[in-house]
Amino acid sequence: MEPPATVGGGGGGGGGGARRPQQQQQPGMGQMLTGIIRIAVFWYFASKFFGPKRSPTQSSDQISNLFHKGEPLDMWLYLSEQENFNDFGSERALVWQETNIPYAVWTADSSRTLSLKYYPSEALKQNGSLYAHVFFARSGYPPDPKDPEYQPLAAFGRTHPVVIYLPKSKADKKKSLLGNSQDSDGGRDSEVAKDAPVDDKEDGPVEWKSYWKPNITINLVDDFTRYPQNAVPPNIAPYLNIEPSTGNYYPTIFFNEFWLLRDKLIPINETVNELPLNLEVGPISMTKWQLFLQIDQSFQIHRSYGSMLEGEADELKRVFLEGNPYLLAVTMVVSVLHSIFDFLAFKNDIQFWNKNKSMEGLSAKSVVVNFFCQLIVFLYLLDNETSWMILASSGIGCCIEFWKIGKAMHIEIDRSGKIPMLRFRDRESYAKNKTKEYDDLAMKYLTYVLFFLAVCFSIYSLKYERHKSWYSWILSSLTSCVYMFGFIMMCPQLFINYKLKSVAHLPWRQMTYKFLNTIIDDLFAFVIKMPILHRLSVFRDDVIFLIYLYQRWIYPVDKKRVNEFGFGGEDEQALVSTDATEQSEAEKKTN
């Protein structure tokens, strides 16, 4: 690590005045790396000589796998309603038996499959339990401990539930506010109502329902690592089956349910007479096993923190299962670009309004309307129990939109009444020119259109859709109008540009990033499966942005008009000419 720092320092010293900043930075980086190396060396020797002494037995005692690679194994799979199984002689419980399975070897003979039908008992239909008991043994040895030929070091097994219990769906609290007997969803809603619990209270007891796992995949982990006896990695220790007498471990049995999605589960009730069961046994590498465990653990952490809703993990897995790998790679790259452009648009939007000194040519009323639209979306998400991360993102967006109002208008607190009120006053750069007149004219006609569309959609939603309350109906109607007709909010700015015959006042850098995101959304409209009407609605923003580009092309640059930072083109030219004059005078004095 030392030579690169020395070379960098020497290169900085050999230059002239233009390289002096680099000369100051390079020795700083070299000193930092040298300090890190010194700390690492000091820590090594301190832990070597002053650390706790390990006993020779502690460092030499290691545990290893009791079986060898490629060793033939016999397998027995039993299905029983008892969690503790010892009825090895029951032919009814034995559903699958295989012989001479090579352990941890990837050959055509190492994987076995079987499909069968299972006929549930009456106890299983009444939310009963069922367990799969799988046993492996060296070829020729029995798994039954009562058998005279049984060898404890030659057989091992594991138990896994075949039936999973999930909470019953809550009763649908949505209803027709007009009291109609027939709803838009018809039969589906009646089935939900029948299946829902009678108690409609949120604090009532949670009802559980049993579901059948149609696929059971048994994997033997290819693990022959020699672990220190008292230092087994914490992610491995819970799965190791230690043999008490020798201290070594049996091969790890992993019931692989990573690709078992929730919609593949089969509900069990009194009408079910037979259930499909697909069995598979085969090897799995150590890396793949740990990868599955880490991903599942990551999903659980995200669900516990509220950043991932129930079922979103299955949707992510479904993309890998059913998607084209090339299309998936393109989607991932495009998603990263979408996030980058979104961040850049957000950054430039903040910079624009933070440095903006003039509202000439900008629509102040559009900023106010955007704030109310963002507030409506936030209240709608809050009413629908959305995850806290999405709520936080929407709430921050509301705060930013309100901050932009303070940049576009003067906000004052009126304390003349009993309750302090906020008063909004137009800025002088906005009120003393034609911008306010054109903005009022555009917003006047736009209000008529939006009011008509909002009333029509609200009436339709009230008649044909179901809602939890009148408050939910108002929020959902307003939110739907924001989603469907929100692009109309950009029309006043188009009108102002048309009247002023100029686009020099617009934040073009931010709009460029938004336009790139719109193009990416168009790509997703063809990639992702969605209704035709929703797919067509994606292209509505394209029309607005194309009009913006057309206006930028036809309207010439006005040197007299100030930009978003309060400077005009003539000011910049005067500043450049002044700097050139001062530089020439300085050169004359030097000569």
UniProtKB/TrEMBL annotation:
Biased composition range(s): Gly residues: 7-18
Location of this chain's protein in the cell: Membrane
Gene Ontology terms: cellular component: endomembrane system; membrane
Statement: the UniProt record of this protein carries the keyword Transmembrane: yes
Source organism, top-level taxon: Eukaryota
Membrane topology category: Multi-pass membrane protein
Region Disordered, residue ranges: 1-29, 174-203
Pfam family of the protein (one): CLPTM1
Compositionally skewed regions (Low complexity) per UniProt: 19-29
InterPro entries: CLPTM1 (IPR008429)
Spans traversing the lipid bilayer: 326-346, 367-382, 445-464, 470-491
Principal subcellular localization: membrane
Family: Belongs to the CLPTM1 family.
Stated name of the protein: Cleft lip and palate transmembrane protein 1
Organismal lineage: Eukaryota, Viridiplantae, Streptophyta, Embryophyta, Tracheophyta
